[in-house]
Design a protein that fits this description.
Blueprint lengths: L1 H13 L6 H17 L4 H15 L2 H4 L4 H16 L15 E6 L6 H14 L4 E6 L6 H12 L3 E2 L7 H14 L4 E6 L7 H14 L3 E7 L3 H14 L4 E5 L8 H10 L3 E5 L7 E3 L2 H8 L5 H11 L2 H12 L5 H12 L4 H7 L3 H7 L6 H12 L3 H5 L6 H11 L3 H25 L1 H4 L5
Parallel strand pairs: 1-4, 1-5, 2-3, 2-4, 5-6, 6-7
Antiparallel strand pairs: 7-8
Helix pairs in contact: 1-2, 1-5, 2-3, 3-5, 5-12, 6-7, 8-9, 10-11, 14-21, 15-18, 15-21, 18-20, 20-21
Bound molecules: guanosine-5'-diphosphate and magnesium ion.
InterPro entries: AAA+_ATPase, P-loop_NTPase, Signal_recog_part_SRP54_M_sf, Signal_recog_particl_SRP54_hlx, Signal_recog_particle_SRP54_M, SRP, SRP54, SRP54_GTPase_dom
Enzyme class: hydrolase
Protein name: Signal recognition particle protein
Length: 439
């Protein structure tokens, strides 16, 4: 899938101390292919790649401590930006009820999502009213009624002989009478867009003047979904998108294209058939998911709670100036240990699991104890200038720490690698990069 492909591209970049223009070009070629293969709209891909390239070829990136990481960070930010940048809230009418109109192709998930939204609003102490506006699909009214019963939300319906426009009109009156502060209108879909349906939807739109027109898009449909979105947007001014079926084996194409094509933010995502399987859509989390960054955001939140920011800044400065010593290393280890068991933390870092295997980088807590013992057996001079540690010193350090010369060798060899890893932590502690903001 997309995630695996991107991870492969980035694992090549990540370890590099130096990145050439050719490396960047090569990586971008692969990112481009990965996106196209994930069925992302080609125009969107083209623009995305050119934006990333523009930012990635700068002198600052090439001369940074870990150019590979910086480029991944740029891709992450641009992906986030592509999906809207930040979380988007539901609009609210100044005078209730707030009217939400659900539109989309047949089978996209309009009816189920209507139920889920009602459930979410009800949990927030609102009084939603569901409106059965699909009079065409057999059993569509019944489907909404069943959902309404499950969550104890009233469903307004008038059978299948009254026009949906009239149903919507009477539903608004009903909401006023019963003090419903949200009205969610479920509408009919077709397998393909047709004029009669669009006409009906436009009339409902005109009559109810909805605060939200949410296009429900099946995330599994890729580029097709985007063409649909463009079409709906031209007819009805969409205000947002709900991406459904993200629990399935989606290729990610719809998520990445739909905001760029319609200009409408993705407001919600659904991840299952159950009524509580609705989530507020967070572009930065989706970007992390696509990049295979696992639970990185929660780690960053944790890091921000636990790490002394001044110390982290000082460390970063030292690393940038290549002043980072074994003493700093020990202190950094202490900070990182506050986050939790090390092996878990490593697994949360992008690509780190892989690096652990390929570089034989042992980072469990027991191993850290031995590493600390080795460093404690060094003299101040050795800690500050590791290059003086010759063979006889290594033997002494091994004996002093109860370890072996091989282990001491390994640690010193890995010191560079560790520095890179620590740099990654300090990048994450940097509030600018953590929030995915712009450079
Ligand atoms: P509508 O025609 O747009 O009203 O679509 P429905 O709400 O009837 O949903 C169509 C099918 O998709 C139903 O079987 C739903 O249970 C299913 N569905 C909707 N949302 C999700 C989701 O987030 N995940 C999964 N796995 N199935 C979903
Ligand atoms: Mg339906």
């Amino acid at each position: 899938g997309l995630t695996t492909r991107l991870q492969n591209v980035f694992s090549k970049l990540r370890g590099k101390g130096k990145v050439s223009d050719e490396d960047v070009a090569e990586a971008m070629r692969e990112v481009r292919l990965a996106l196209l293969e994930a069925d992302v709209n080609f125009k969107v891909v083209k623009e995305f790649i050119s934006k990333v390239k523009e930012k990635a070829v700068g002198k600052e990136v090439m001369e940074s401590f870990t150019p590979g990481m910086v480029i991944i960070d740029i891709v992450n930010r641009e992906l986030t930006e592509l999906m809207g940048g930040t979380q988007s809230k539901l609009a609210k009418a100044t005078k209730p009820p707030t009217v939400i109109m659900m539109v989309g192709l047949q089978g996209a998930g309009k009816t189920t999502t209507s139920g889920k939204l009602a459930r979410m609003l009800q949990k927030q102490n609102h009084r939603p009213l569901l409106v059965a506006g699909d009079i065409y699909r057999p059993a569509a009214i019944k489907q909404l009624q069943v959902l309404g019963e499950q969550i104890k939300v009233p469903v307004f319906s008038m059978g299948d002989q009254t026009s949906p426009v009239e149903i919507a009109r009477q539903a608004l009156q009903e909401a006023k009478t019963n003090n419903n502060d949200y009205v969610i209108i479920d509408t009919a879909g077709r397998l393909h867009i047709d004029e009669a349906l669009m006409d009906e939807l436009r009339q409902i739109h005109e009559l109810t003047n909805p605060d939200e027109v949410l296009l429900v898009v099946d995330a599994m449909t890729g580029q097709d979904a985007v063409n649909v979105a463009e079409n709906f947007n031209n007819q009805l001014q969409l205000t947002g998108v709900v991406l459904t079926k993200l629990d399935g084996d989606t290729r990610g194409g719809a998520a990445l294209s739909v905001k760029a094509v319609t200009g409408c933010p993705i407001k919600f995502a659904t991840l299952g058939e159950k009524l509580d399987a609705l989530e507020v859509f967070h572009p930065e989390r989706m970007a992390s998911r696509i990049l295979g960054m696992g639970d990185m955001l929660s780690l960053i939140e944790k890091a921000q709670l636990n790490i002394d920011e001044d110390k982290a800044k000082e460390m970063e400065r030292k690393m940038r100036n290549a002043e980072f010593t074994f003493e700093d290393f020990l202190e950094q280890m202490d900070q990182v240990k506050k986050l939790g068991p090390l092996d878990q933390i490593m697994d949360m870092l992008p690509g780190m699991g892989k690096m652990k295997q390929t570089q034989n980088l042992q980072v469990d807590d027991k191993q850290v104890g031995r590493i600390e013992a080795i460093v404690h057996s060094m003299t101040v001079q050795e800690k500050q200038h590791p290059e003086v540690i010759n063979h006889s010193r290594r033997k002494r350090i091994a004996a002093g720490s109860g370890t072996s010369v091989a282990e001491v060798n390994r640690l010193i060899k890995q010191f560079d690698e560790m520095r890179r890893m620590m740099k990654q932590f300090s990048d994450m502690m940097d509030p600018k990069s953590a929030k995915g903001g712009k450079n």
